[in-house]
Design brief:
Elements lengths: L1 H20 L10 E7 H11 L3 E7 L12 H9 L2 E4 L8 H8 L4 E4 L8 E2 L2 E2 L7 H18 L4 H26 L8 E3 L6 H7 L2 E3 L12 H13 L4 E5 L4 H11 L2 E6 L14 H16 L2
Parallel strand pairs: 1-2, 1-3, 3-4, 7-8, 7-9, 9-10
Antiparallel strand pairs: 5-6
Helix pairs in contact: 2-5, 3-4, 5-6, 6-10, 8-9
């Protein structure tokens, strides 16, 4: 009889332990399966989603979304996603075909849908994130989309969004302040492709570029000659490399205009974790630091 009681007691204890460990409080919480089209969006979604999201990116750090070629692995990512965040405005021209081909049931969120896009030479400029205030809209869109799919953690998404928007406001003020002592007439630089139009409009730095808003089409000899002539006429002080573009073009323009060769600007992609632009905030601070250093008398 005593053995029976001992065995029953041990069995009862085991049952209680199993129930305790598998309760919602202690079980591993299921994360929302998120796909971000490229590295900058991946970082922004992480800032809002925190531990509640599991993010995979299609176009990773140091890769160019303009010319990216999707793989079968990317198709699997799309198929498994509950929600897919994209930039839109034609930035990921290949992505809609990929989503349609996989017959994905994930919710597609176009983060730039509420932003008034600029146009240049008849093309829509998709590089909306180069104006920090536009990224505030991205964050709001991410927050709303995550709450819609996961309302139980809505308070966390709202809190994270508000904290990050405050960081963005601080960053915007920093950029304006950093450029204050550089006269407007001296704020003229050359970049490889036309990726900084929104930055230019917000912060008053004029960018000349031989390539259009996409790196997909190479700059023609006429385009290069036009930029060289304009750079000479406007006494451009610096020519910048880009982390997603061939550096030879920038070096040629620098040599032919006698403008100093500035550092590398991060236009369409973050760097790896050990780089100077591993997050959006770090990327923008790096770019401004390089611009100010090149333009200082």
């Amino acid at each position: 009889m005593r053995f029976r009681l001992s065995f029953s007691y041990v069995y009862f204890l085991c049952f209680i332990i199993v129930m305790f460990l598998t309760s919602p409080t202690h079980a591993e919480t299921k994360k929302i399966s998120v796909v971000a089209s490229f590295s900058i969006i991946g970082d922004l979604v992480q800032q809002v989603g925190g531990d509640h999201v599991g993010i995979t990116m299609i176009v990773g750090p140091e890769e160019d979304a303009h010319v990216y070629q999707p793989s079968p692995a990317d198709a699997r990512k799309i198929t498994q996603a509950e929600i897919i965040f994209i930039n839109g405005l034609g930035f990921e021209g290949w992505l809609s075909r990929l989503i349609n081909a996989t017959k994905s049931k994930g919710t597609v969120v176009d983060l730039s849908s509420k932003i008034k896009a600029r146009q240049t030479q008849g093309e829509i400029d998709p590089h909306v994130w180069q104006d920090v205030n536009n990224v505030k809209i991205y964050i709001q869109e991410i927050c709303q989309a995550l709450i819609a799919i996961d309302p139980n953690n809505g308070a966390d998404y709202q809190k994270n969004s508000q904290l990050y928007i405050e960081k963005l406001s601080k960053l915007d003020n920093e950029i304006v302040e950093s450029l204050t002592n550089i006269p407007l007439d001296d704020r003229r630089v050359v970049s490889t492709h036309d990726a900084f139009g929104y930055f230019s409009a917000r912060y008053g730095v004029a960018f000349l570029a031989p390539q259009g808003v996409s790196t997909e089409a190479e700059a023609s000899a006429r385009d290069i000659a036009r930029i060289i002539d304009a750079a000479k006429a406007q006494k451009v002080k610096a020519v910048f490399l880009e982390n997603v573009a061939d550096p030879r073009l920038a070096r040629r323009i620098s040599a032919e205009t006698n403008a100093r060769l500035g550092g590398t600007l991060y236009s369409d992609s973050l760097t790896g974790a050990k780089g100077d632009g591993a997050t959006y905030l770090e990327m923008m601070r790096h770019n401004v630091k390089e611009i100010v250093r090149a333009l200082k008398p």
